[in-house]
Write a structure and sequence with these properties.
homodimer, TIM Barrel, 8-stranded parallel β-barrel, globular, EC 4.1.3.4 (chains A, B), Aldolase_TIM (chains A, B), hydroxymethylglutaryl-CoA lyase activity (chains A, B)
């Protein structure tokens, strides 16, 4: 069994994480979080979303946050863009990468954005074209690739279909997301295999939620398939909107702990990462959702 | 990659779990927990320990608990026996299996029982002989096979050495335990490989702690090696004595969720298992440590 020598983690905490937290977090705190993440060695950070503040008030400060970051050379700053209007607003903030999205579940697509999977991807075509024209890298987030809160289990054929649609409009990289955390290793493997029909292994990342505690096992099976890019969220920021009180995004700390333990390089300083996680958990007034983060922080206090 | 078709889980919650909980739990509650575990389909349960009540007051009711269980055919009831005196007391309770133990760390052995690894195993020789004479199966729990709270990382050679000592005194099965949860997949793989020099794959089980969130990833790598027996603890009972407030034993619910998701049979009814976990968590007055347990319980409440 061979494993990648090096893994790249994209911390999605400031966007995917904080968007799903109940509390509104001030721009200054978000900026400080981004600064702490880049100080810890993260080379890509999903910073914010250029979505209507009517729908997502948590991200209303998108331009302010992007403007406030002291950018570090070699770090990429990505933003979510739900439509052309969002993309045009995002453009002013000079992101390195934009994220467009689609669901592998028709029911989720209908409930969430009131259109079919194909329609939702079609609508992104001008965004992708404009981004590529502007030299901005385009990542596609594929949600519900294993299970859907409305439809239940999702067949790999639906992932194949969605990945094909994403490829068709010029998306350059896709994330295979288990949005509700129901995936287990073999189901995740099949979702990734379906994606690999359209994208190269270097164009695919894993995005797992720890709602059922499965995220590291799912990451391990991906590593064994050669996947070397993952989305993670510092301190496990972001709950699960479909199971209140449950865990959402896998914690960056837990993934880094596993990778370093396996001798896989990440370029991340775990101690500094734990500080970043503790900073935002303290701000939110609750313990970190990272098991490794909590254990190492407790150890630090008692030693 | 092939996986076992069927996995056997040994729920160690009543013993290993409750022994490490601060609260004293009455015998009646322990008995009810065992009944709920067997109703959920567990085929082996580590019930109690015949250790001096001076050292482990939580297990002072060992004989009472063993006597109170309405035993179910096909279910095995095991007990921990730290010495010959404990074994003789245990014998009266007619266990199907006894558990002896040793550490792969010299420092841990010295600090914990004030003797060397070899001495500690030697002391168990008469216990093992007496048990086998009485037709009782002997399992050996090998602690600190990946890391030790005093020594740090443990080399696979120490596991090889300990497994050889266990084999030498007639132990019939060994559990490879990551007592402090610091293990990651490749380290665990090496510990299991060292054990397999002395024991057949059918004589080896994995025993993982989720302190750093790694238990399911470690279980997955074991499954890939052919290991099909694991110790788990309902609701993740049992904290980590070396990192206060941190998670201890991996939750049975999380492991069952993964196995069933992978199409691996366990004979366990996850719904009933969650009830068992909720029962003991409610008694202890705190949420379950199982992520799958919490997510499924929340889902049940809201659907």
């Amino acid at each position: 069994m061979s494993y990648p020598l090096r893994v790249k983690l994209v911390d999605v905490g400031p966007r995917d994480g904080l968007q799903n937290e109940k509390q509104l977090v001030p721009a200054a705190v978000k900026i400080e979080l981004v600064h702490r993440l880049q100080a810890a060695g993260l080379k890509e950070i999903e910073v914010t979303s250029f979505v209507s503040p009517k729908w997502v008030p948590q991200m209303a400060d998108n331009a302010e946050v992007m403007a406030g970051i002291a950018r570090q050379p070699g770090v990429r700053y990505s933003v979510l863009t739900p439509n052309l209007k969002g993309f045009e607003a995002a453009l002013l903030s000079k992101p390195d990468e934009i994220v467009v999205f689609g669901s592998a579940s028709e029911a989720f697509s209908q409930k969430n954005i009131n259109c079919s999977m194909a329609e939702s991807i079609d609508r992104f075509a001008p965004v992708v074209a404009a981004a590529r024209e502007a030299g901005i890298f385009v990542r596609g987030a594929m949600s519900c690739t294993v299970g859907c809160p409305y439809e239940g289990e999702i067949a790999p054929e639906r992932v194949d279909y969605l990945a094909g649609l994403m490829k068709g409009i010029g998306v350059q990289h896709v994330g295979v997301a288990d949005t509700i955390g129901v995936g287990t290793p073999l189901k995740v493997q099949r979702a990734v295999e379906a994606t690999l029909k359209h994208f190269d292994i270097n164009q695919v990342s894993g995005h797992f939620h720890d709602t059922y505690g499965q995220a590291l096992a799912n990451s391990l099976i991906c590593l064994q398939m050669g996947v070397w890019q993952f989305d993670t969220s510092v301190a496990g920021l972001g709950g699960c909107p479909y199971a209140k009180g449950a865990t959402g995004n896998v914690a960056t700390e837990d993934v880094v702990y596993m990778l370093h333990g396996m001798g896989i390089e990440t370029g991340i300083d775990l101690d500094q990462l734990i500080n970043a996680g503790q900073f935002i958990s303290d701000y939110l007034g609750r313990p970190s959702n990272s098991r490794a983060g909590k254990a190492l922080f407790t150890k630090r206090l008692t030693s």
